[in-house]
Design a protein that fits this description.
alpha/beta, Lyase, Ornithine Decarboxylase, Chain A, domain 1, TIM Barrel, 2 domains
Amino acid sequence: MNKRIIERLVREHRTPIQIIDHEKIRENISTFKRLLPRVQAYYAVKANSLQEIVRTVYRNGGSFDVASLFELGLVLEEIKYLAPEKMQHFIWNNIIYANTMKQTETLHQLNLYSPLVTYDSIGEMRKIKEHCPNAGLVLRIEVPDEGSIVSLKDKFGVEVEHAIPLIERTINAGLRVEGLSFHVGSQCLEFNNYSEALKLSAEIFKEAERKGFEIGEKITNRYPIKQLDIGGGFPVKYKGDEPSFEALAGRLNKEFEDFPRSKYAILAEPGRFYVANAAFLIMKIIGKTIKRGKVRYHVDDGLYHTFSGNIYDHQIPTIKSIREGREEECTVFGPTCDSLDRITDNALLPGNLKEGDLLYAENMGAYTNASSTNFNGFPPAKIVHINQ
């Protein structure tokens, strides 16, 4: 990170500052398209729901995975100037409401748009039948997610053995089943999860076909095209030793051959992959203590703010110093009066830093400001967009 650029940004905006680089987002979008050319990528808005990021994704031909009416509203804001027919076409083709459990009030609103939605239970199917019958349905199945940093299978996904009976009941209820979805867990480091999930999906599709169940999207196609949503989990290089997305993409492209283009459309929900490395955070040391022989720095951002992902996303960013010096293992605390506000005990930093010195962390674009708060009266970091 260029020292002069950081110091200039601090002079202009003060700390803490989160810098969002939209050129990097565009690069990530391009990389995803290049390495997985067959996949229609739906940006998982929850990773970072800033309107400016939604706008950049939209302007670069993106589709969207939303999970709330608020997130849907962010996308609708970008398409509000389209003619009604074009707007509806965009919603059909470029938005998936990928929350398997929805409030009845939400379903009433969604029914206006005839959207694509996910579900994974008989109870949710019945709610959709009553409150959002115009929707197209994608059944989320439970798949292995061992080796992923954030496991999702305990909360989401019907057990595979119950998938066919649920599809049958959904079709018999008069609803459109358009395909299957799965998620191998966030920040997936074990690529066999994808292989196993694709195998399970293929078996379910074949069994449904054998039983004569018609699955597929027909609104914009003359014949049913089965939707296969492979979710997210695409790895980001936080530490540098994570398996590469390039390797995963090569593997997936070969396995997609079992799903011919004439019958299947393949979707994905990259969130972290688009935005994680598109942001960095600049913070300032506001105090220093030495306890039991260990240097402890207090900074003006913390777990209740941009480092909130430490807790629920299980990512501990690497904190670096602008000033050079002999490094030692230090503890870094956030600014609040809660002892939980402890960012890390293992930061390798110069031990001779003082109040006012600047620290920074890279790869701070995903699951960071999305959950930042005003706890204890400390406001979130100022967000600065560059290269829009």
